Amino acid sequence: MNRLEELTLKLADGDLNDAELVELEHLVSGDPEARQASLSLLAVESLLRGTSPADNAGVIMERLRSLQSERVVAGVMQAVQAGPRPGKVPPASSATNVVPVRFDRARFPVMWAACAALLMIGIWYGLLRNTPGLARVVRLEAAVWGDGQTVPREGQALAPGHVRLRGGFAELRLSSGVRLILEGPADLELVGRNRCFLHRGKAVARVPREAIGFVLDGPRGRLVDLGTEFGVSVGGAGETEVHVLKGFVEATPQGDRAATRLRQNEALRFDDHASRRMAADGGAFLTELPPQPSQPVGVLHWTFDEGVGNLSRNLGQGLGPVEPHARLCAFLPGEPGPEWVDGRFGKALRFDGRQAYVEANFSGIPGGEARTVAFWVRVPKDFTTNQGYAILNWGTLVEPGNAWQISINPEAAHGPLGRLRVGLHRAPAVGVTDLRDDRWHHVAVVMYGGAGANLSTHVLLYLDGQLEPASRKAVQEVRTDTRSQAAHNLWIGRNLAYSEAGRPVPGGPFFRGVLDEIFIFDAALSQGQIAELMKLNRPPAGLSLRPGPLAGLSSHP
After folding, report:
1. Residues 6+ apart with CB under 8 A from 66
2. What pTM value is reported for the model?
């Protein structure tokens, strides 16, 4: 008797332990013939040997969900109709891969056994075809699906099989209660109600008490949850890292007999050759997706369409003071401020990188509260690293996390030059696309708030309506300072670190480039809403706006 038969027979008897159950799942995963053989043997043995399927119905149904085969009914029919010869077992069928089955004629007559088997298989097969999925799609954010992937929608149940993401995020909830956030590019296989196989990509698992024991397999080993939250990353060659964010995980690299127990803030990397312990990097994983706004949203909007003068009016509503208008300024007395030029929509402002900037009567969104900042920007090809700070900012530099500044990255030590950058003072997030091409690009930076809102886990970058991957994300709590004496109102085009004393600063004191259509929302917009904002240049139609003293949002055809 081989190991597959041995484990299947123990399952039919109801005495398969958890470790053996995981082993059986591993043997049949990805092997259709093994699945067929195990299922046929399981069904026939459970019914024809006199064991009561009700004794372990829950376990058997779970196995049937993951071992189901279109050929199972035909296989069982052939097995029970052929019947055994006295003292022998039925031969295996090459057509249906039915494995030899032990049969006790005295305990269970053949005709009644055949009828019972066919009846129960019919019931089980019907349940399998109509059973809810192993998981349900909770949220999608900027999701781009892989070739051949049926595109799911939010709320849809998912059957056993692969979930392939080329980009973006998908939040799934397994039927066991486990919550998974999958980050593309990724390939996750749903195997059982409390088990998955991550072939590549990143996933964060949050496991409730009732689902302790959740198994996440990978090409280089197995992870078993012990009541925890953890992130997993599987590279293209199968190399695997597990980072424990809360609780405990048991990690067993492939080929090892003993599991390694990891606790909060510990991590393990394993590949073909060895395993290595290290400190967990919470910033490597997105642990939340932006919640949908539940309250009306306030918005500021400067169009820069005036074309003359030194004032740009806010056309938003429900955010900031009564008149949060923007004033065009020059750092040096008597010098010109930003220049009016043609923009992406109507007029725009050109910043010279030497002393021109804008100051608005708006103190900014404080602390870790949700926000979305969006605008159009054009960065010249001859842009230099002393012209990167800053497109837009508010806050202070008193402590890390007190600032909120969006820039074009001017510091190679922090990531690739010329890329979109969000800085919190000593803690940046930097994108991957070089913007130094003298073309218009739409930028949106989203932060969804809450206790412990962090640059690494709560901030998403969007470029031209699509999610922008981050080449680097620092771990830093966002606690934007808008109330201290050192805090100032919103600056556009001037480095937050450039004081009245005019001291030299890294990245330069002023921004060089063209800006148009600046929006600030006090909520986290979704990718779909950002794409609509980019296309129509007005708040998304489905967004409920907070009443305010200013009305008449701008709109361009």
Report:
1. 25, 28, 160, 191, 192
2. 0.67
